[in-house]
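Data deposition worksheet. Section B asks for the primary sequence of the deposited chain exactly as it was used as input, without tags or linkers unless they were present during the calculation. Section C holds the resulting structure in token form. Section D is free text for depositor observations; keep each observation to a single sentence. Incomplete worksheets are returned to the depositor.
Section A, Depositor: J.P.
Section B:
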Amino acid sequence: MRGLITSERAAKIYRYLDESGPAPAEALEALWGRNKAERALKSLRGAGYVRTTRIRGVEMVYLRGCSPVAEDIARGWFAARLAEAGGWYSASEGKAYFPRGQVYPVVARLDRVEFDKFFAVVEDLKAKPLKDALRVKQHGNFS
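Section C:
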């Protein structure tokens, strides 16, 4: 039996993970602030809603019943930076919804995320806002 979610922030993080899928703990900390995210995640873990695991040395946070994969590292950072910019990522659809109404299917690889004519590598997403992390694909560079 699961416990109650009594924190508004924990509820927001739960809804975020439900919509966007597994995410690196660091990405959640970048989105909500380290201390606030840590407290909310501790509450969610204690109540039985989320679990953590390490994939390729990265602590991943995910909802019970979900199985994160290595590509979720890139997808999770992208989703966090997109949310920070006012958009959202739908894991169930595999699409990014941008603040100005654009919608693109997203392909996650081990080290990057691609959509339309753009891509972003994980290292840039860790360090920069989405608009600064995006690069334009050069013809023939990616699938």
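Section D:
The chain has a mean pLDDT of 94.
Residues 71-84 form the longest helix (14 residues).
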